[in-house]
Specification:
alpha/beta, Phosphoenolpyruvate Carboxykinase, domain 1, nine-stranded mixed sheet, 18 helices, binds sulfopyruvate, binds manganese (II) ion
Length: 595
Amino acid sequence: MEKYLKLLKTKCNQENYQKLIGLNNPALLDFVGEYVGLCNPLSVFVRSDSAEDAQYIRNKAKELGEEKQLAIGGHTVHFDGPHDQARDKQRTKFLLSKGENLGSDINSIDREKGITEIQGLLKGTMAGKEMFVLFLCLGPIDSDFSIYALQITDSAYVAHSEDILYRSAYEAFKKKESEIEFFRFVHSAGELENNVSKNTDKRRVYIDLCENIVWTTNSQYAGNTVGLKKLALRLAIRKADEKAWLAEHMFVMGIGGVNNRKTYFTGAFPSACGKTSTCMVEGESIVGDDIAYLRKKEGKLFAVNVERGIFGIIRDVNPQNDPLIWQALTTSGEVIFSNVLAKDGIPYWLDDGKVHPDKETDSTIFPHPNARYTIRLKTLKNCDPKLENPEGVEVKGIIYGGRDSQAWPSIFESFDWKHGLITIAASLESETTAATLGKQGVRKFNPMANLDFLSIPLERYIKNYLQFAKDLAHPPAIFGVNYFLRNENGDYLSAIEDKRVWLKWMELRVHKEIEAIESPIGFLPRYEDLKRLFKQVLGKDYSESNYQKEFNLRIDENLAKVERIIEIYKTKVADAPKILFEILEEQKKRLQEKN
Ligand code: SPV
Ligand code: MN
């Protein structure tokens, strides 16, 4: 402790030193001191909750060249290196203690070996740079859902992103002193060349579940570096497993019904499959677009948004598809664009509906399909007033959706919780996208859209889910959606705005206000209800022939799917629960009988 205090005093100015000391938390000081010692930054900036400190970080991001000013006030652009623009699943690993087993799908490395490697990579990595120390909270502050977090980074862009995306919690740390439990994230962009991480071959994301620490090196892409995003999700899944709640890759939204009724839903979709555009549809309200914690209270289910901002995919955002996001991205306010094409202060991205300038020779990789924007939810006019509610919102329905060109209809509902959990959530498959490194368009099994982030064996995760609903008075309805169903010519069968109708149909189903048709995979909408809703919501005539194409169940494809899923659970998942096979076999039988 003494040696760190001396060290901290030499690296922090008086004000920053006082901010650290003021926390009255020796263990926290030790941790910061240890990484100051290891990474050897030139100076240390400690972020309190003040507006000046937020401004300091914004200014630094520009001074350091990590962000550049665009034409509109508050808008900046950040570039990651050409090989650093998506989550790196291969180099993201759990540190595994002796005797621990996470299952074959989860990437891991021996704990001691991993720590030695990552500490080696971090040694001296911040020489000449400033270290930023941030205190943040996952979920609303001072709620049963809150998890506190400390982030250390040498990137002002990462610090700035976290400021936009998470609640600042310096005062909460101060209030709780050494009582506070918190996740810890250490990031260094490593050696830079033209402002981007140079040694991406040495990119590492190592996760230690024993100590709740994650280290990232040699990357800038937010999905690898912003600790509170998917890195914290992995730690939270483990915590949720211990305490019987759920940490999910889900949006949270409110859907309007009759007499000003608002019904809250969560929705899990793999990355880049319409998750943000669903919870951002016109006419409804958004609580969050990416990560939710779910807890039970008095037999009811509640959810909070872990974040307070959006790190969203910008591709396809245009005035027709996403008018609300479009507005946020084209008017003054705090926005970080990343990996777009920027010319004369104007950002351009794929399918933005604008005429693009000729690309400059040094930016031929831009705009990237995984280019993003980072904004605060509060600046959106559709932001739900319960975003900061410490109780969360009561959830009545859960939606699962993937990129499935062949099998699932556009929308359907499970028979009950268990059926939905097994045949929709745990059977989710999706074609890969630009959100992760690697080939696109490959069909991948992705249960609950959360497989990339699981820190417990899949079978345990599913068992937890089965258990979870036992003391809920009314388990939420479970729906499957598929925005990517295609006809034999490869054309999509639904239009982008049709999801507004699906949402209204789900809201009515939750309240048992419309009937549905029983099919082998669950309940399907009736034509007359959709016809009415299309007219009401979109002013569109919905033809019976469209209905037939979308909802005449594709028996062969659904049969093939259920067989594929049974095979996966039989061969790749050790110890999958018996009930899972029973439910899948029943579904298979129902489909065979229709064949
Ligand atoms: C996703 O890829 O699912 C995202 C962005 O939401 S990130 O995980 O941060 O890369
Ligand atoms: Mn996501």
